[in-house]
């Protein structure tokens, strides 16, 4: 099974997903940075934030203490990241299915018809 770090490929070259580490604990932050040294990115440029507390951020967050118990090894971190990545893929797929639901299609059709009706009504009022 391919590691999370081998998941992305660009012209046959393996590309690691970028991770940002945001921790109050300096020791925990340094340990995570050491384990993930080849994948570290800024919080704005990363694909995943690993933190020891819940942050107000739209990006996926792996929270130490909830998703990974201390102390941990590099292999445990990798396993948790694998599971976390699969969960994110499932959430994305579910969101895509919900967006394609009949209700969403019906709402889009109603919106389209309302816009068309508004434009036609405005055209008729402008002619008078």
List keywords for this structure.
about 130 residues; alpha/beta; Rossmann fold; 3-stranded parallel β-sheet; two-stranded antiparallel sheet; 3 helices; 5 strands; about 50% helix; disordered N terminus
What features would you describe in this structure?
The chain has 128 residues and is an alpha/beta fold. The chain has a single domain (4-99), classed as Rossmann fold (3-Layer(aba) Sandwich), CATH 3.40.50. It contains three helices and five strands, in the order βββαββαα. The longest helix is centred in the last third of the chain and has 26 residues, at 74-99. It is elongated and about 75 Å long.
Q: What does the overall shape look like? A: elongated
- CATH architecture assignment name: 3-Layer(aba) Sandwich
- The tally of beta strands, per DSSP, is 5
SSE succession:
EEEHEEHH
- Quickly give the structural class: alpha/beta
Return the domain count. Answer: 1
What low-confidence regions span 5 or more consecutive residues with pLDDT below 50?
A: 1-15
Return Rg in Å: 22 Å
CATH first level: which class?
A: Alpha Beta
Terminal-residue CA separation: 70 Å
SS strand fraction? 5-15%
Q: Kindly report the CATH topology.
A: Rossmann fold
Count helical runs.
Answer: 3
Largest sheet strand order: 3-4-5
pLDDT averaged over residues: 79
């Amino acid at each position: 099974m391919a590691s999370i770090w081998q998941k992305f490929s660009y012209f046959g070259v393996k590309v690691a997903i970028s991770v940002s580490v945001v921790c109050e604990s300096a020791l925990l932050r340094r340990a995570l940075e050491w384990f993930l040294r080849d994948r570290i990115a800024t919080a704005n440029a990363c694909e995943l934030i690993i933190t020891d507390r819940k942050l107000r951020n739209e990006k996926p967050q792996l929270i130490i203490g909830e998703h990974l118990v201390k102390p941990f090894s590099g292999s445990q971190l990798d396993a948790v990241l694998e599971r976390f990545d699969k969960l994110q893929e499932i959430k994305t797929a579910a969101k895509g299915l919900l967006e394609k639901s009949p209700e969403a299609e019906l709402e889009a059709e109603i919106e389209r018809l309302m816009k068309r009706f508004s434009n036609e009504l405005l055209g008729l009022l402008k002619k008078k």
